[in-house]
Amino acid sequence: MNFRTTKTYLRILLIPIVFLMHLGCIDADKDIKFIDDARLVQADETPQEWLSYGRNYSETRFSPLDQINASNVDSLGLAWSLVLGTKRGLEATPIVADGIMYFTGTWSKVYAVDARKGEVLWEYDPQVPKEYGEKVCCDVVNRGVAIYEDTIYVGTLDGRLIAIDAKSGQMVWEVVTVDQSKPYSITGAPRIVKGKVIIGNGGADFGVRGYVTAYDARTGARQWRFYTVPGNPKNGFEDEAMEEAAKTWTGEWWDYGGGGTPWDAMAYDPELDLLYVGTGNGSPWNRDIRSPDGGDNLYLSSILALDPNNGRLIWHYQTTPGDSWDYTATQHIILADLSIDGKKRKVLMQAPKNGFFYVLDRTDGSLISAEPYVYTNWAKKIDKTTGRPVETEFARYPKMNSQISPPASGGHNWQPMAYSPKTGLVYIPASEEGMFYGQPTNYRFFNDSRTWNMGIGFDPKNKTHLDSMSGRNFGKLIAWDPVAQKERWNYWQKSVWNAGVLASNDLIFQGNAEGEFIAFEAATGKKLWSFPLNSGIIAAPITYAIDGKQYVSILVGWGGVRGLWSKFTDQINPGTLFTFVLGGEAKMPEFPEQPQKQLVDMDIEATVVELEHGGQLFQRYCGKCHRGGGSIPDLTYSTPQIFESFQQIVGEGALLGLGMPNFGDRLSEDDIGDVKNYILSVAQSRIENNQNSH
Asked: Which domains does the chain have, with CATH numbers?
């Protein structure tokens, strides 16, 4: 580990900052990049900036800036754009401090940009080994950075936490936060609390044990670590929380990793001095395998309240006890003070994957209310006395195949929601969908850090429960009343995979899979403005102000888990940062038209057995990415030249630099030949079907 010598900084003249019409007048050329604890706590007093992932510690993603509003948003135009040239998903929320914008791209690369005009000031590439892309479930993405004092912090895909000098872009220190021999990853943005950098990890889909760690922001020294699930009891327990959690597990869960990775959601209450962290799914998904005699399996799919000074667990609330559906509680957490039954309550709000919108008392974790925000059939309701779900008779699937809603991708995934104190509504990027869950007939745990370990399947011998409502497939932006627990309005979307949300004054901004960036009236949902960005959008927008002008920025780069397989635009353009201003007249960047691809038509020499074998290998090793032609190509449309070099690409790593794994350590030459012929056979079948349809 590299350590930085501790410096002494002047802390005067930073706060308070004078405002004019709520718009910033800070000169980006001045070297004012000292973001101390007070400035983070008082983020709402500097609305011209966006100082952390959710803009403030409450993660509301609401800005009071009012220069852009419902009366003039139709005059919004492009101020500038910056083409990054990336080819995978962009999920980052930029932060803006003192006129400089900092954000991440693919492969955990960090950018610093002049927020007035989009000129790059520096780039930092952590050089993530490209073979590491095989160890992540859901694209080589990153959701953003944190800033503290004069330093930028990023968690990298391969599990490092790196501190970067905000002015020069040079690394100050780095620390490896995970066992890199295991399939851990980091895609979430760090948070800063009381001089500590807080970071979680991902990897539960592959078989790891989750935890969240705090590091000293100046030196990188580890301060504390909280594990989210217990390890092997024979090795002892790290704390009382793990000892209690172990009582809710059965079997030898530690052999599977356990899961519970806290890969995204965090929020902080400075008054209560509590850090709130959302935890993920079990490893494997299916509780009947990881914990065969049942149990709640704490602290999977839970909201944890931790003491940020030492990492001690203060309280927990489990949204999905004994999770078997990948119903993570890692989705966006928002803090607010709401009037409920005539009493002011300090609440925590979350719309996790399981389809229920939760309002908790954030002082003690007690349930205030929980109601479904999308169609939900795995549970009838949440019992208000016990706080537990009342499961339906077909929710568990040891002896049946069940069509369940929401699916593993959730009623709401990682895309951030927003809360507007002006309307009192929460705006949720939601989806209506379902999927089949069933007990696998011959499941075995793959002790391979690059293989999914879900523990689900479909057994045709078992009874199947069907639900026509679970067969629907569309997205919707929901305006949700958290007090009444009711939907106030919604906006229907063609795809289930859309962008995060920004609440700004009386407007709501969101992008969608069809490449449209839209502004809605916050109170009614009326569509007031839209701008075609021509490539699918998944990241959340921000707003900031410099020199008396308010801007709205959004990163556009199609990808993420659903974006790997599908697309809703004619082409997927290189990743680009777009920024808008009233009266903006900048020209859109020009992207070359991507040629229409043809199904490959080549001769196949293979037996039925070889094709079946190739199909099995394809599903295990290739299907995670090459399922349908989103941001990663559908291989049935590859050129003959690709198949002529198939052995070199698959078995020798010829395209490793582009993120294509080297399977030579797992697949023989004959195996690779079977995969190749299977892909060609699928292409042939599609060609024949197309001919017959005409």
From this structure: 1-143+498-586 (2.140.10.10), 608-693 (1.10.760.10)
